[in-house]
Amino acid sequence: MIIKLEKHFFTSKEKLILETDQLKASLFKYDSDIEAIRLENEAGYIVVLPYKGQMIWDAVFYNNSIKMNTPFPEPVKSNNFGETYGCYLMHCGMTAMGVPKESDNHPPHGVIPYADYKDAKIIVGSDNNGNFIAVTGTYEHNVAFDEHYLAQPMVKMYESSGMLDVTMQTKNLSRKEMSLMYLCHVNNKLVPNANIYQSLAWDADHMAIQEVDQSASDSNLVELFNRVKADPSTSNPIPEQEYYDPEIVFFLRDMKIDEDDHAHFLYELPDGSAYYTYFDTKELGHGVRWIAYHEDCEAMGMVLPATAESEGYTAEMDKGNVFTIAPGETFSATVNCGAITQDEKEKIKEKIEKINRN
Question: Could you tell me which residues come within 8 angstroms of residue 23 by beta carbon, excluding any fewer than 6 positions away?
Fold first, then answer.
């Protein structure tokens, strides 16, 4: 079943639009006048912004909010990166992403994060993973004599699961080859003394830190930076009073994979709950870790799966990390992320340990 949405469906009063035995969808508007869809199952709910980047603004599972903490209680109408920053997940790209250098002309993380979508749909169906409810839409980016592509993200929620299936498909509609860069910006909440388990070695060769301007940085950040640069394992766990201000970024390289080419990352909280992300490294061969922990932001970007690292178009082109898709060709990638039960957590920890032994 497909429900094609119209903007006039959304009002300040939340209303149920669809319900199955275990899945629900409701529509509402934030006070900022931004339209939102709440998808709900027995494990919790997410809030998707169908016309603003198709970002997942909120995510609550097993009675816990799993998204980063920021000073933004709700989304803000803006197309400028950082002026509305509090979501659980946003798509970044598509012809460029990352932090632009002086030689770059793209906005931070490209145009996709806050893209204005013209259409959106709710889908109810089933696949090999079970019954689901999903939100999707299309964004057409068209610049005369330049870029022309169609981006189509989708997020699926399954019955009784805290895990989400997040996909992005992008088709090159231009007559020319198209540069392609994509990053799935998954923003978990940072919890002091929580532990990361990863299919990746904890050393400087596999966790290269992004350089900072030490002459312009706070002395506390410089000390922390140099310590975790020499030994990335000292960032796991993060104690309550050790502030990552404003942020530290790692590039996760040569990730270990399972028999399906998936890399796995698990964040175990002191209360026993856990966040979990895994993805196909054939589609997304790079990982970025973004950590911010201070008064304005508490975020553990445990792994941001990507086609490249996040230093902007020019730097990634120099590294050989920017690839192209031909006219009419479609890029597709899937990221699975969310929260898992304690029983599921123990199985994933065993899986990660097994991968790391091989």
Answer: 39, 40, 41, 124, 131, 132, 133, 157, 159
